[in-house]
Amino acid sequence: MRTIDSVEWIEADGALRLLDQRALPGREAYVVCRTVEDVALAIENMTVRGAPAIGIAAAYGVVLAAAGGRGAVREALERLARTRPTAVNLFEALNRMRAILEAEPSLEGEGLAGLLLDGALRIHEADVEANRRMGAYGAELLPRTAVVLTHCNAGAIATGGHGTALGVLRSAREAGKTVRVYADETRPLLQGARLTVWELARDGFDVTLIADGMAGALMRTKRVDAVIVGADRIAANGDTANKIGTYALAVLAAAHGVPFYVAAPWSTFDLTLADGSGIPIEERSDEEMRGLPNGQRVPETVRVWNPAFDVTPARYISAIVTERGVFRPPYMFS
Q1: What is the distance between the alpha carbons of residues 1 and 4, in angstroms, rounded to a whole number?
Q2: Is the pLDDT confidence value at 88 over 70?
Q3: Residues 6 or more apart from 144 whose CB is under 8 A from it?
Q4: What's the CA dihedral at 309, 314, 316, 317 to 10 degrees?
Q5: Is the separation of the CB atoms in 56 and 7 below 8 Å?
Q6: CATH fold group of domain 7-131
Q7: pTM of the prediction?
Q8: Catalytic residue (one of 184, 232, 270, 310)
Q9: Annotation says 232 is catalytic
């Protein structure tokens, strides 16, 4: 199948093109960003999503500001940093772009823009390379015939390419293994149903969709060899923030003796945090949960709690797969 580029710099236009993940699976549509604000809004409204893809998009967003001079670049760094609080890849990418800016204090105009673009392209290329290496390491964890459960979307469209959790599945298949996948719906925005199922089916995987609440019954009644998820931030002790529902899945996996793996690039680690208690958890609009089938709504008098992420304690994680290798507990990253 043709490779989908969720984040793509269009050199001829000097613009950023993003796969509009809000439109999937119904249609494959793209949004062209020509300003920093375009990119910021695309991150906030989840046109682009997935921790690595968000970081890459933000790096290109900084490039778009270069035409306005160094002051505009600094403003872009601040604006983009406010878009999403949990995914550390965003801040890692912005810090790298800031370092490029500060390393050449006298550079302006096309020279500055070219230097920043080179930096953004390197961030993008490094993510794809990391995913490939990560996938090879993770594939070794799976049996020759594997049944895997995944949550949310940690695929090629959530990264620079290949994917993290789904990259492991792709690499396993490339190594000659047979992989069957169960995908959680991932409520409330259904990234599993809308994105993971679309991506895996498009690539010819045997994939079955289940509701989030079915995972326990699945593990109890059917064969599941592993659970593999991505991550948005990993603390120094291995505590991992990922899409809401991941923590429950990890507890269920432990109860049923199913290995629970996290696949994430090194840019997802936040070693300034000793444990997961310091990870900021984004809370999103209650509108994401109020809509019901047939046009009905949850009454406005009912309160809604809508955290986008939860933190899985390291004790429930069998291994963390990175481009640097596979790490097992006790986790002591530094």
Answers
A1: 9
A2: yes
A3: 176, 177, 178
A4: 90
A5: yes
A6: Four Helix Bundle (Hemerythrin (Met), subunit A) (1.20.120)
A7: 0.95
A8: 232
A9: yes
